[in-house]
Design a protein that fits this description.
Strand content: under 5%
Low-confidence stretches: 100-108
Structural class: mainly alpha
GO molecular function, one term: chorismate mutase activity
Number of helices: 3
Distance between the termini: 43 Å
Number of strands: 0
Pfam families: CM_2
CATH class: Mainly Alpha
Helix content: over 70%
Order of helices and strands: HHH
CATH superfamily: Chorismate mutase
Mean pLDDT: 90
EC number: 5.4.99.5
Largest sheet: none
CATH architecture: Up-down Bundle
CATH topology: Chorismate Mutase Domain, subunit A
Protein name: Chorismate mutase
Number of domains: 1
InterPro entries: Chorismate_II_sf, Chorismate_mutase-related, CM_bact, CM_dom_sf, CM_II_prokaryot
């Protein structure tokens, strides 16, 4: 027998859905800038990865996570996932094997 969920559950879920939508939009904006970085790196012969910058970003994000009462290890995993994707895009841009917009995906 299933119980009827309390009305506030729908409200909480709507708030979560709104935040998820905002995260997707923010990630899209972030990738627009990282694509531009990839084009600039390719044009100037810079490597796709910048370990020094990545280390600074990890430390910064971990500190922000702690301040926000979010598990810093989770924040680091999240950033590492994003950075790995960015590096992949930068490598693809450098070799000319991908479009320069993150929003362009293969629809097949």
């Amino acid at each position: 027998m299933s119980q009827t969920p309390p009305p506030e559950l729908a409200s909480l879920r709507q708030s979560i859905d709104n935040i998820d939508a905002a995260l997707v939009h923010l990630l899209a904006e972030r990738f627009k800038f990282t694509q531009q970085v990839g084009v600039l790196k390719a044009a100037t012969g810079l490597p796709a990865s910048d370990p020094d910058r990545e280390a600074v970003q990890v430390a910064r994000l971990r500190a922000l996570a702690e301040q926000s009462h979010l598990d810093p290890a989770f924040a680091e995993k999240f950033l590492n996932f994003i950075v790995a994707e960015v590096i992949h895009h930068h490598e693809s841009i450098a070799t000319g094997s991908v479009a320069t917009r993150a929003s362009e995906v293969d629809e097949s």
